[in-house]
Amino acid sequence: MMHVLLSRFIRHARTSRPWGIGLIAGVLLLTVLGNAVCFYFFERGTHPDLTFEDSLWYSIISITTIGYGDFSATTTAARMSTVLFVIIIGLSTFSILFGTIIDWFTEIALRGDRGMSTIHARNHTLVVHFPSESRVRQLVRELKTDAQTEIIIVSDKIDALPFQEKNVSFVRGCTVSEETYRRASIEYASKAVVLATNYSDNNSDAIVASASSVIDHLKPEIHLVAECLDDEHRMLFDSVNTDAIVSVMRIAGNILVQESQDPGVSQLFDIITSNYEGDTLFSALVDTASDSSYSELSKQFIEKDINLLAVTRGEKTFTTFRQIKPEKGDNVVYLASNRLTWNLMIS
User: Fold this and answer.
1) pLDDT digit string, tens, across residues 42-56
2) Distances from the Cα of 118 to the Cα of 45, 173, 184, 268, angstroms
3) Which residue would you say has higher pLDDT here, 103 or 263?
4) Would 258 be classed as within a structural domain?
5) Cα 285 to the chain's mean position, in Å?
6) Domain-located, residue 120
7) Distance between CA atoms of residues 235 and 126, nearest Å
8) What residues make up the domain containing 205?
9) Which end of the chain is more exposed for a tag (fewer CB within 10 A), N or C?
10) In this structure, is residue 118 part of a structural domain?
């Protein structure tokens, strides 16, 4: 009867992790102490040198099934208490405790793989939506120029990541839900890239705009880049404070036309837009004005292997610079082997 009740208690405790683990551990501790007290009380008459520490040692070693044999029960009462505390209660509780702990950690790992856990990250990048494995893997590869960069992929279209990458985690959930982004530690994220849901989905731009709006609401200062499939849908982003809206399909179409007219253009774009091959496109914020024009400064840049390509000022983009002087707040786009600050560029 006692064994049945114990089994029911342990089964109930195992289903109530982590509270159940603490309960089972408490029962195990009481069992160790109960057996030690009984052993000390019943055996000290035949072993005058026996201490309570010896009894506690005997109890622990017996329950863990090690049993060194340096102490053993000799009286009937001590043996009965050993049967009760060690064999009936202790061994079962000890086995169940460690089994439950292993199950708990396994469950935590599985929840992480399935995107159900909260990811504790800092200064990380969110990649929202999973249009295809090849698309996401290519994006992750480009983002991870720094080995320490941590990326969290957010999507409700997959049950688990189909690939394993260092410092890449997964959060499964609705991409327009605040709770999903809380689990992705959005309050500590530095960047967010919101991809199209599917390149054949006519509703993709609306969903991307909605997800971007939630992200902007939760962390307005995050650097937010959104992918737009149809230029006619850009109005959907008017109320969202995105740092950039990238029309991938239009850009791809432009490159196809350019390549058909001027062979070699697509190869150039492959190199300058990759973080792994040759020089790469970078941008730098101008934080000090200058009396020299961009045209004059570009000659200095060339000597440092820096090629100035464009200057953005508000909504305007300049690709010729003869009469334009640097103003605070300008953003310069350049081609180089390393990322530089404006002060390093002009020094």
Assistant:
1) 988 888 889 999 999
2) 57, 11, 6, 41
3) 263
4) no
5) 29
6) no
7) 24
8) 125-246
9) N
10) no
